[in-house]
Amino acid sequence: MNEKKRQAAYAMIEYIDNYYRENRHTPSLREIEAKLGFSRQSALRYLQELDREGVVKYDGKSIVTPYIEKLTYYTVRRVQIVGTIPCGTPTVEEQMHGEFVSIPSEWLGDGRYFILRASGDSMIEAGISDGDLVVIEQTDRAEYGQIVAALDENNGSTLKRLVYDKKRKRPVLHPENSSMKDICPDEIVVQGVAVKVIKDLP
To answer: Where residue 126 sits, what CATH number does that domain have?
Structure first.
């Protein structure tokens, strides 16, 4: 790496550190490209070269600079944003991003966790708004009353409260929005249980 490229690479590290300080997760390659003006391919190449040199840790998804490592050592767990989940009618959602968010360890148990970005307004009365990050504990079991990430028989995904409908004598997915009706799929497959919500202040 020549001096010009090294300066660009270290400018990228500085941007990553500043971004992490403000957002508690690292930027995507697209955000690096937009901010610093060089291509995602160049950003990827710089990260790979800096990883080989031991300056940063980069595995193709997670970026860990010395600053980030110092902040996260022993105190947080890094949890991946794996996609968007509708807070509305179930739809098929693709996995995306690969960004990581640092979560205080005391928020989490010993299980496996992932993060979904909420989309829609069906859970607003439970404090979950459009764009919020919802921390999910991965499990296929849930108790009635818990908020779950679930699939229906058509592999449509949604975030709802799991309740038992005494009239129908069956479990249903209940929106926390008084203007919306329960969802009653023939089959409910629980993917995880919501444990925390991360949101920006207005």
So the answer is: 2.10.109.10
Q: Token pair of 65, please?
A: 């600079």
Domains identified in the chain, total number: 2
Q: Which residues are catalytic?
A: 122, 160
Same domain? 97 vs 156 = yes
Has this prediction a pTM greater than 0.70?
Answer: no
Separation between Cα atoms, residue 54 and residue 73, nearest integer Å: 17
pLDDT tens digits along 134-184: 999 999 999 999 999 998 767 778 999 999 999 889 999 999 999 999 999
Q: Which helix (H) or strand (E) element contains residue 52?
A: helix 40-52
Among the candidates 72, 102, 120, a domain finishes at 72
Parallel/antiparallel/unpaired status of strands 100-104 and 76-86: antiparallel
CA distance linking residue 44 with residue 56, whole number of Å: 12
Range of the domain at 130: 77-198
Looking at per-residue confidence, does 185 or 70 come out higher?
185
Report the C-alpha gap between 134 and 112 in whole angstroms: 14
